[in-house]
Amino acid sequence: MQGGDPAAFDVLVRRYLRPGFSIAFRILDRREDAEDLVQEAFLAALEAIDGFQPGRAFGPWFHRIVVNRALNARKARARRDAEEIPEVVPATSPSPHEDAERADVRRRLSGAMASLTERQRTIVRLFELEGFSGVEIAEMLEIPPGTVRWELHRARKALRACLAPLAEERG
Amino acid sequence: MTDEMDRDPARDPALASALRELGPEPPMDQVDWDRLERRISDGARERFGREPIAGRSRAPWWQPMAVWARPAIPLGLAAGIALFVVLVRSPAEDAAAAVNLLAADPLAQAVYQGESAILLETSLADEAAQ
Does the interface predicted TM-score (ipTM) exceed 0.90? Predict the structure, then answer.
């Protein structure tokens, strides 16, 4: 792509569109916003392609653009919206048949997620849900891998505390 | 703790499952991927429409000057020599050239004579006033 081959750009779009969208959605929680953001990220990557070091993997570099832009977009949206954006949108409301204790765990987990910092939430989602390694996340967030693992450790500790009753029930 | 920070911890399936229940999963099946790809391609074409991607120049800013340096140096030297010759030409040569011009060009002669007549009239008028 650095050689100015439009076909190479199309190949990269096809390859990294879905992972890019998925990362953006994890941070933004809205499909339309994630679509717009991944589009902007590709165009930003194309503009900045001269700064990309040949021989390095495109994926982490592109994912860094997506994460940075998504975090900025989320901050901007929070400022713009008059109402507070819920940090975590429940997938479904508890059904009448849902176990009361399970609903309570979900409610507390939601609260624990909301109490995390934006960076911790991003790290835990990228690690646990998207399957990225600490090193990959560190590259995306431009922080040392040790910091990523430390933040992950703190976030997991807070979240696991909410899951303890459920684990005891299962155990 | 240090060892824990040196490598990634094991994944926690229970936590991952709970987090998945908590928030919506990326709706991969709701996205029109072809349309999104087209949007990106169109955006790329629009943004770089005036300057096609294939023709984008990544040359350093000084490269155009470097290209011109080879012909510019001898041309500059030649221009300098010509300027030097013009500047050091003797006044006698200039006067001779002017006489030749007057002799050869009737229009120049007329202008020259007209100016002489005006000067003569002016000086006579001055003398009469005194």
Answer: no
